[in-house]
Model the fold of this input.
Amino acid sequence: MGLLLFNTKDAIGQGINIDGTAAEAWQSYIDIYENALAMARQNAVQDLHNTLYINNTDFDLFITILRKKFSNVNTLGGKLTNEDFKLIILNALPQSWDSVVAGLYGNMNSAETISRLHPGMLESAETALQKWVKVAWHFTPQLPSTK
Done:
């Protein structure tokens, strides 16, 4: 028990039980550590879920930040999967992205989802859609007026 107390700063202040045996003190130390780890993990998960993308900001930086936070959660013992990460990404996007996001809940991993969300891909898809609408508008038959 002496080594435990000697190597712990303010053991009593941290709540380590030193009234019993060395085994009880060690178990108390482990319990406190596990509680602190659980709180840190919960804070990391909450931080990950609270990260939101803002339109017209650096999308690559946003994804990098999310990946670091995801890694942090799993390093702390979290059990987030690739599917969880994909859903976190999709839920972090603003409402203006809903038309794009709606088609991305299918069977694809987070890397495929990110590649489809990348602004360059979206701009090319939007340009193609605008061209298609112009062509469709040009060939839309005009209905006779009912005057």
